[in-house]
Design a protein that fits this description.
The chain is an all-alpha fold. The protein has 3 helices and no strands.
């Protein structure tokens, strides 16, 4: 999602998305360790960036 779309969500929804991204990233890391390869390696970068974006928006909302 784009940042302006994420800013419209509530804090609870943002935190749920952070947890979903972190669990997906953990599963991908586990699969890489076990199988030695991943379907889409670019997804690692995407998940990390999305998580950082979500955490930034959460911090902005908490300060406001």
């Amino acid at each position: 999602m784009k940042p302006h779309e994420l800013r419209e969500l509530s804090l609870e929804e943002l935190q749920v998305r952070v947890k979903e991204n972190e669990s997906a990233l953990q599963k991908m890391r586990f699969n890489k360790a076990v199988a030695g390869q991943v379907e889409n390696p670019a997804r690692f970068k995407m998940l990390r960036r999305d998580t950082a974006r979500l955490l930034t928006i959460i911090a902005e909302k908490e300060q406001a």
